[in-house]
Amino acid sequence: MTEPKSAREKTTDGPVPGPRRRTKAAAADGGTTPGTALPAELMFAAQAAHDKKAGAVVALDLRKVDAFTDFFFICTGQNARQVKAIADAIDTALANEGYKPAHVEGYDRANWILLDYFTFIVHVFAPEPREFYDIERLWGSAGRIEMPDPAA
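Given the sequence above, the corresponding structure tokens read:
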């Protein structure tokens, strides 16, 4: 993560992040990546996750479901070190585009790291918690979008 450890775990203290800066690519196509209905930010997250060899990378489209966010971005790392590396890579990639998470949870334990960007939430799981919590089943009415490696 790009912030000091103590700042990462803060959730309710401090100011709420300001308005999001849209990238040139996102602004040009209305916030989505050509050929998909996904915001460019999710494509940046997908590329960062794939660069760190994340497994089972999917997005859940919650826009047609009564939900508190538009998308869940979900991926898996094989161990705590990889889970942290994936979360760090996603955080860095999105920070480079002007996005900062409003809330981060689980970084110290690294079996499920959550990064909340308001319009989408990133979930980076270790295999066992992903299977146990089974977010895809819980949000089964949401559209599931497989996120293949854009570089492949």
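The domain at 47-147 is CATH 3.30.460.10 (Beta Polymerase; domain 2). Try to locate this feature in the token string yourself.
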